[in-house]
Amino acid sequence: MAQPLAPSGAHEKFAFDTVFEASGHVIHAAPRPKRSYTTDEVEAIRKAAEAAGEARAMASIANRQADALTLIARASQQALPGLAAVAHEHRVGSAELALACAKAIAAAALDKFPHAPVRAALEALAREVEAAPRLIVTGDAELQPGLQAVLEETAQAVGYPGAIQVRVDPIATPHAFTLDFGDGSASFDPAAAAERVSQALHAALAAEGLHAEPLIPGAGAPPEVQEPES
Predict the structure, then answer these.
(1) For residues 77 and 222, is the Cβ–Cβ distance under 8 A?
(2) What is the C-alpha separation between 110 and 54, in angstroms, rounded?
(3) Residue 164: DSSP 8-state
(4) Is 227 helix (H, G, I), strand (E, B) or coil?
(5) Are the beta carbons of 228 and 63 closer than 8 angstroms?
(6) How far apart are CA 53 and CA 44, in angstroms?
(7) In tens digits, what is the pLDDT along the chain, a chain of 230 residues?
């Protein structure tokens, strides 16, 4: 006995699958379910069932993949601050190593060519000192040997006609010197120059902080994490 669905808001009518006359003759009979199927029908039912099962399986796999990607994205976002801190420490360490190497190379170059900075300074100041009658060069004692000859040779090359006097400064740091030409002066102190470079480098690193260039060149902001649809 079957009862058909009634429209929403209406009462369902009671119905019978089979209706008989008073004489017993059947005047209405509901179709009976099919008990046997052909081979083609069985194959079609099998394929339909497999397709439905595969669709449900693929939907489940897609949901699991979306959940896994969400977890991976969250874990990556949580790891980025720590990774940025490690990258910043690496930048600072690399900069300090480069600075130490530069200091060592500069010190070796000054030991090898102690008069080169004085010669370069006089050549750069040729226009400023050309009218000065006298040029006084003061430096540490280790710089003095051979300095007078170097200065006179350089002065002749740049066309400086004045007198050059070399004096010793007992408190000067190694390879430091001062050129005094009356109307002005110029000084060079390798230790002070290295300290200024170090301070400028560390100030730049501190200002940069954890906001340096992306860890992956060309990468922008991390993608937004979207919850999978239920």
Answers:
(1) yes
(2) 78
(3) E
(4) coil
(5) yes
(6) 14
(7) 445 555 555 556 666 667 767 776 767 666 766 667 788 888 888 888 888 888 999 999 999 999 899 888 888 777 777 777 888 888 889 889 999 999 999 999 999 999 999 999 999 988 888 888 899 999 988 888 899 999 999 999 988 888 999 999 888 888 999 999 888 889 999 999 999 999 998 888 888 775 655 545 554 444 454 444 44
C-alpha 114/C-alpha 146 separation (Å) is 10
CA distances to 118, 130, 146, 148, 181 from 152, rounded to whole Å, are 11, 13, 10, 6, 15
Per the DSSP assignment, residues forming a β-bridge with 185 are 180
CB 223 within 8 A of CB 73: yes
The closest alpha carbon to 151, from 141, 173, 136, 140, belongs to 136
Rounded CA separation 62/55 (Å)? 11
Look up residue 17 and give its two tokens. Answer: 């699958």
Residue identified by tokens 């100030």 is 203
Q: Tell me, what DSSP letter sits at residue 19?
A: E
Give backbone dihedrals phi and psi of 181, rounded to 5 degrees, phi first.
-120, 30
Structure tokens at 204: 């730049």
Q: What is the DSSP letter of 36?
A: -
**138, 177 Cβ separation under 8 angstroms:** yes
Q: Which two tokens stand for residue 187?
A: 């000084």
Is the distance from CB of 87 to CB of 212 less than 8 angstroms? yes
- Largest Cα–Cα separation, the chain: 150
Cα of first residue to Cα of last residue in the chain, in angstroms, is: 39
